[in-house]
Specification:
Length: 278
């Protein structure tokens, strides 16, 4: 099975502003497609969907984007730009795990972790899931679940807590996986947090066939929640959009698009034949 995974950021009525900001922020930017509702943009080798969903949801710290900056000049440049109208969660400085690191939130509520380290991949921005509160011990379970769900996947790194305690004895502090070529970080926190996973950050799986849609829909949604228009939440509360790869081309057909929209608004799981015949 072939699929492409990309993160989706929920944008509240600031689509053009957001694209302008991220395009100016990152040195390697490619605007793939742009519309008032859904846009695709590639930032430093990572493809993002931006979804103008209004004010119902918003991003939070449960999912952040880890930037491997690779040098002092770049990490300082990104840090200063991001905090200009954002806020600092962890100031730029030396930490046990990095010579230079920071955690910041930009003006749109999107969280970024900046690290001076390099990554041996063209994907320089890696989404990071934070398992906190009652989910703190679920990192190992999650990475096993995701690597078993997606083909051609592997666990790249598992890091336990350096000084295990009762709270951390059976939990991983950090792990990194590759899901059919897409790198994903996972981490846990022993501290209480006032946020949880939300559709404000989700992951899009583009499927080439109905068989692929059925596979990811059934497995990812099991013990979670199925919603409308291809949306689901998995057993950990992480939101996914399982969509056909032909959807973008169908939506670009001005004559057919209204009928396609009317068809999929009635669906939970996408049905490709119904969309083609709309």
């Amino acid at each position: 099975m072939n699929q492409h995974i990309c993160p989706c950021i929920w944008i509240a009525n600031t689509m053009n502003e957001s694209i302008d900001f991220y395009s100016s922020l990152f040195n390697q930017t490619n605007i793939i497609s742009q519309s008032p509702l859904v846009s695709y943009i590639e930032l430093m080798g990572t493809k993002f969907m931006l979804l103008n969903g209004g004010n119902k949801y918003k991003p939070n710290s449960s999912i952040s984007y880890y930037i491997y900056c690779e040098n002092v000049v770049e990490i300082e440049r990104l840090y200063n730009r991001l905090i200009e109208h954002g806020r600092i969660l962890m100031p730029l400085g030396k930490y046990d795990w990095s010579e230079q690191y920071a955690w910041v939130e930009d003006e749109y509520g999107v969280n970024w972790q900046l690290d001076i380290d390099k990554i041996n991949s063209t994907q320089k921005i890696v989404p990071s899931l934070l398992f906190a509160n009652d989910k703190m011990k679920h990192v190992k379970k999650a990475i096993d679940f995701y690597t078993n769900t997606f083909s051609n996947s592997e666990i790249l790194l598992e890091a336990p807590y350096p000084m295990p305690s009762i709270e951390t004895a059976d939990s991983l502090l950090f792990a990194q996986v590759k899901l059919n070529g897409f790198i994903l970080n996972t981490m846990s926190s022993i501290y209480p947090h006032d946020f949880n996973f939300t559709p404000g950050n989700s992951f899009v799986v583009e499927c080439d066939s109905q068989k692929e849609i059925d596979h990811y829909w059934e497995i990812l949604g099991k013990d979670g929640r199925y919603d409308m228009c291809g949306w689901l939440s998995d057993q950990f509360g992480v939101s996914w959009q399982i969509i056909p790869s032909i959807l973008k081309s169908l939506m670009s057909d001005q004559e057919k698009a209204p009928r396609v929209i009317n068809a999929f608004l009635k669906m939970q799981k996408f049905d490709i034949d119904t969309l083609l015949n709309a």
